[in-house]
Amino acid sequence: SRSVLCVRAFSRTYATATSPHALVFIEHRHGVIDSGSLSALTAAEQLGGQVSGLVVGGPDHVHSVVDKVKMLKGITSVLHSTSPQYVEPLPETLSPLFEKLLSNSSPFTHVVSATSSTAKSLLPRVAAKLDVPAVSDVTSLEHDPATGSTTFTRPIYAGNAIATVRAPGSVAIKFFTVRGTAFAAAASQEGSNAEVKAVDAVEVSDSPTQHLKTTITKSDRPDLGVASRVVSGGRALKNAETFASTLYPLADALGAAVGASRAAVDAGYADNSLQVGQTGKVVAPELYMALGISGAIQHLAGMKDSKLIVAVNKDPDAPIFQVADVGLVADLFDVVPELVEKLKK
Ligand code: FAD
User: Does the record carry Transport as a key word (predicted)?
Assistant: First the structure.
């Protein structure tokens, strides 16, 4: 069972309690807002103050994203900045823009983003430059307007303990990243009073890092990170061919995304992007099917918050059965084809 760890945190002092005003970094790809950013918005709204979205990118997509962001529930203003350097943003090219926005006259008390690859390198960089704390992978928060302190919970030790950390009111700007599965996605609403403001880009001429190319894994199946159903396979699937021929028909019959254990990924049965767990993706779908997965603690860290967990395993003592709502001790190569036939009917 989970234990709760309380950690007193942060002692930097130079501000008094003010009404919260969050700056939320809104990530998007080709005009589509990342679902993690929508969860970050919901978390920011829970601070109880103003919420500004920040959209950066090239001229092709920024304005269409801004139009979508200003319609999101909870948004009070949208800042946007356009530069060729922001088409594929790097921490080195984006951090000067954040530093400008967070300079002495800044109204912002919190900087919020999804726990994404970009934000994981960007936010700590900016926080370190400003010498303020950053809290990552937050699953809940509570802001105290009287003291200006914000208390966060975040999973540690692969989700086996929950740390409670507090950034006191004396910290001028609190940075945090949000675990997407812990906060609902902000919804769109009719009508918007949100103010929209352009911010000049801060061009970086001597970035030590340059973006060369992005290779996106293409799939006709739902995105693993946001799918409501996930069918995952483990080492038991034997090889890449049987992984595909066994799991994909079931995923297709259920309209599910495909996931994999690290053993299956390391053995080359499935792409890296499908790994679920501590060092893979964290998912919390309505239905998670674990097929031929033992249920190692590092795998559970990525799926145990799923609403309904179904496990099929030959070993009645497999640890996956300790978290499963429905468990079947059976050979998956018998069960899965039968299930697919029944689903098709
Ligand atoms: P196994 O543990 O080998 O289990 C295979 C299971 O299949 C067994 O339970 C077996 O009974 C069952 N089985 C065999 N044949 C059949 C059949 N025909 N029908 C039904 N059942 C069958 N793992 C992750 O998944 N995600 C991570 O992010 C991750 N991160 C890690 C990080 C670190 C630092 C470390 C040290 C490990 C990490 N791991 C991760 C690895 C993890 O510890 C396990 O090794 C891995 O999850 C095991 O994968 P598996 O369950 O597919 O394989």
Answer: yes
